[in-house]
Amino acid sequence: MNPNRLWTHRLYPGELPRLSAVRRDLRTDLDGLDDETVDTLVLCGSELFANCVKYTASGHDGGVVRTLWQADDHTLTLGFTDDGLGGTVPALPRTRSTTQWQQAEDQRGLLMIEELSTAWGYSPLCPFGDIGTHTWATFTLTH
User: What is the pTM assigned to this prediction?
Assistant: First the structure.
């Protein structure tokens, strides 16, 4: 992979069926990395895209998700920007009982991303109003 690479920004309709295009584009862009790393990045990228669609205005009619990924010699960062109006920010669920965790089908994705990434976080597009959030995850690349 070419170090210090910034891939072309992409814009996807905010629809879950578009996940196949997100995954395909990620796999194409990550050509040259080992299969395990690519699988991890595609899995986490899929989760970040799905969260944008499920929890924000990106999933409403006409909504979009913007993507950007970049790499240097040792890390790769995936970034997904939503249309806002979700009313919340990305957060790890921490207040569940054991029974609730055993029965939970949702809200495990960020736990997975926290486990598989070096770091993850988010930033609002502006300090006021809910016009969008950029959520990112950074991964260490092995050579």
Answer: 0.84
